[in-house]
Amino acid sequence: MTKHRILGYTTLAVVLLTMFAIPVWVDFHPQDLANGLLLFFALSAAMCWLMEKLEGGPESYPGFIYD
C-alpha cells in the first residue's frame, strides 16, 4: 500500500468519525443545527470524492453502467 493510499484512508476515517459525531453534537447544542447540517453535507461530498479517488472511480467496477 502506498503512502498516498494510507493517507487517503486515514483521512477518510477522520471524515467518517466527524460525520458520526455531528448528530451527537447537534443533539446537545441545538442552536448549531444549521452549521452542523452544512458541515455534514460538506463532509458527505468529501467522503464521496475520497472514496472515488481511493477505489479508482465507478469505471473500474465490473458490470457498471458504463459497460
What does this structure look like?
This protein is an all-alpha fold and 67 residues long. It has one domain. It has helices at residues 3-28, 33-55. α1 packs antiparallel against α2. The chain is elongated and about 40 Å long. The model has no long low-confidence stretch (mean pLDDT 81).
Q: What is the β-strand count?
A: 0
Beta-strand content bin:
under 5%
Termini separation (Å)?
A: 28 Å
Structural class: mainly alpha
Features of the shown structure:
mainly alpha, single chain, 2 helices, 67 residues
Q: Can I get a quick summary?
A:
By secondary structure, the chain is mainly α. The protein has helices at residues 3-28, 33-55.
Topology summary:
Elements: H1 3-28, H2 33-55
Helix pairs in contact: 1-2
